[in-house]
Amino acid sequence: MGFFGKLFGKGSQETVLRPTTLTVDATSVPRRIGYDPALVQNLLHDHTQLGLVYSQIGDADQAGNLDEVRRLLAVFKSRLEAHVLAENVRFYNYLEQSIHDDATNTELMRGFRREMNEIVRQVLAFVRKYLASDLPPAARRAFAVDYAAMREVLEHRFDSEEGHLYPLYQPASH
Fold first, then answer.
1. What global pTM score does this model have?
2. Which is nearest to 54 in space by CA: 81, 88, 79, 20?
3. CB-CB contact of 169 with 40 (8 Å)
């Protein structure tokens, strides 16, 4: 049994973790995200890996290997969610705190964040739609069209992030 099963009481009573009582005034705890010199490189690596998996999905579709399409869609979904989580928690939060005095770049960053959330919704809807399908011939034609559209959206987004947003991620000046 995994950690989450134990945590939520799905194991023997000896392994169940009990909540502790901790009183902390949340307003007194600074919530600062530190600069990570490897973060942008890791996010760029994610883009490359996401692009590779996405291309493999298209290759599997072209080969008619529908089980592989579904497997790769699940892999892509998982990796995209992890990437977006890292961006939201580590990248955007740090950027927001470090450029809060720069109204122009703050607005640019917030626009990117809103746009990314909308793109993620679209991409995840695409993935869920085809994960739930057994891809009969009509659905495969629709898949090819949707796949091409999502590829274009993702490529444009990654290019925009890499060219305009990621360069804003710099160590805070003191």
1. 0.78
2. 79
3. yes
